[in-house]
Amino acid sequence: RKFNVAVVGATGAVGEELFRVLKEYNFPINKLVPLASARSAGSKIEFDDKEITVLELTETCFAENEVEIAFFSAGGSVSEKFAKYAVEAGAVVIDNTSHFRMEPNVPLVVPEVNPEDIALWKETGIIANPNCSTIQMVLSLKPLDELYGIKRVDVSTYQAVSGAGKTGMEELVRQMQDFFAFQLEDAEKKAFAHQIALNVIPQIDVAQPNGFTKEEMKMVKETQKIMHKDIQVAATCVRVPVLRSHSESITVTFNDGVEVDVEAVRESLERFENVEVIDDLANNAYPMPIISTDTDITYVGRIRRDVYQPNIVHFFNVADQVRVGAATNAVRIALKWIELGE
Ligand code: A2P
User: Fold this and answer.
1) Residues 259 and 123 in one domain
2) DSSP state at residue 163
3) Partner of 15 at 20 to 30 A CA spacing, among 200, 210, 268, 325?
4) pTM of the model
5) pLDDT tens for each residue of the chain, 342 residues long
6) Active site: which residues (predicted)?
7) Are residues 87 and 29 in the same domain?
């Protein structure tokens, strides 16, 4: 059976990628309904060699178009205001924003990790897509937790500007152009608090009372919710001048008494769905954004046992933020939802 599918935020970075992923995965679409603000209503998107007109997001647009699956990626406040109209019209909402993620009766899903949670969708009509940094991290934590049992995770991220949407990507490109025109000092700053070209910024999202940022605390709470386990997580989230793949330096502490076998770690990661290991340091082979960009794979490498403690392993993890961290995970959720009988 085929579905009427809406994309809210159709003109954004994630929205545009969603159309590509839907096409590549041969998603069973009856009617596609691109939605955005009044600013973009009337513009066209291309899908399957056809042009489709973008409609204005309104309270009634879901019912009018008999939408059955609605992807939301237009920011938390848009989801807050409009998701209920999609649900009322009978659609399942797959929400890319952080708005519903921590609500106890809303499933937070990475299909390779906790597909069973999708069943909870009936309670609210909503399935939440986790934060991009969380998605790629739990894809490598899940097989390691099954192997040895994880106690604690310490992670530093190197996050691409695509996490701030099109505005973020345009800001990096413009500042690079300004640099070559010797005008970088006056560069416009909209998406980030500081210049991002030729810089790194150790802040993503707003400050929390405990000294961490909101992004860092998302990685804590979302990891625990997805893994169904009170794993200790400490994150440092850093914005870097990379276009669209996030990297993460991850240290995992396993339960007391575990003696890490690096080969076993490598094999468990290699076996896991949509994870690939690139790990040959002597030949300069490891995951990097230029490898992961435009792919649906989470790459892991630089796997090594701690020098002091046998129950600790360190590794590097890289994935495309727009795809693995957003559009592809959303489409995989929808496909799983269909497979599980809606
Ligand atoms: P628009 O282009 O009409 O502003 P990004 O994450 O790349 O910044 O994209 C954000 C997406 O969310 C865009 O498609 C944008 O549409 C859409 N959007 C933002 N605010 C609203 C709103 N109030 N109503 C509907 N769509 C919105």
Assistant:
1) no
2) G
3) 200
4) 0.97
5) 999 999 999 999 999 999 999 999 999 999 999 999 999 999 999 999 999 999 999 999 999 999 999 999 999 999 999 999 999 999 999 999 999 999 999 999 999 999 999 999 999 999 999 999 999 999 999 999 999 999 999 999 999 999 999 999 999 999 999 999 998 887 778 999 999 999 999 999 999 999 999 999 999 999 999 999 999 999 999 999 999 999 999 999 999 999 999 999 999 999 999 999 999 999 999 999 999 999 999 999 999 999 999 999 999 999 999 999 999 999 999 999 999 987
6) 132, 246
7) yes
Q: Where are the alpha helices (DSSP H) in the chain?
A: 13-24, 61-64, 76-88, 132-148, 165-180, 214-227, 262-271, 289-292, 328-339
Residue 39 CB less than 6 A away from ligand 1:
yes
Closest-lying ligand 1 atom to the alpha carbon of residue 56: 25
- State whether the beta carbon of 58 lies less than 6 angstroms from ligand 1: no
ipTM of the complex: 0.97
Whether residue 133 is annotated as binding a ligand: the answer is: no
Q: 3-state DSSP call for residue 56?
A: strand
Distance of alpha carbon 279 from alpha carbon 144, whole angstroms: 16
Residue nearest to atom 15 of ligand 1 (CA): 9
Containing structural domain, residue 244: 133-321
- Asked if 244 and 312 sit in the same domain, the reply is yes
Beta bridge pairs of residue 313: 252, 305
Is residue 159 within 8 Å of 173, Cβ to Cβ? Answer: no
Instruction: Note whether 234 and 252 are same-domain residues.
Output: yes
